[in-house]
Amino acid sequence: MQPFLLEAARVQDEFKHFASTVPETAYLHPSAKQLVWHGGGNSELVEQIWHQLSVEACGWGTLAEILLFSRGRVGLAVRDMLLAGVIMVHRGSDIGEYDAAQSV
Questions:
Q1: Among residues 85, 2, 7, 79, which one has the least CA distance to residue 45?
Q2: Number of folded domains in the chain?
Q3: Does 101 have pLDDT greater than 90?
Q4: Rounded distance between C-alpha atoms, residue 92 and residue 49, angstroms
Q5: pLDDT tens sequence across 15-28
Q6: Where are the alpha helices (DSSP H) in the chain?
């Protein structure tokens, strides 16, 4: 039981740091036309995030509401995808004000 509690505490700490770094309303979009994922973790979640962002740019908070994964898992998957360079964040706009031309 203790390993699960330690893992939960680690995920919570990492999620808090990510959430304070990348606003949940910052638009995310793919950085390429095809997903190339070599990272660990949940590849099913990564593929779902990629698909959703390929259809329409949105914030990770919206992804957490749409996808059937916990908010923490979505946030950390988005963090990993950002670090791997497969998605990008456009911090200059809020949800509802996105213009695809701005992110180029």
A1: 79
A2: 1
A3: no
A4: 21
A5: 787 778 888 889 99
A6: 2-21, 43-55, 60-66, 71-84
Are the CB atoms for 24 and 89 separated by under 8 Å?
A: no
- Which residue shows structure tokens 């959703």? 52
Q: Supply the range of the domain harboring residue 18.
A: 2-103
For the stretch 21-63, pLDDT in tens is: 888 889 999 999 999 998 777 899 999 999 999 999 999 999 9
> How far, in Å, are 63, 75, 83 from residue 72 at the CA level?
11, 5, 16
How far apart CA 36 and CA 40 sit, in angstroms, is 12
Instruction: Tell me the three state secondary structure of residue 86.
Output: coil
Closest CA to 56 of 19, 103, 21: 103
Q: What is the pLDDT of residue 97?
A: 44
Q: What does pTM read for this prediction?
A: 0.77
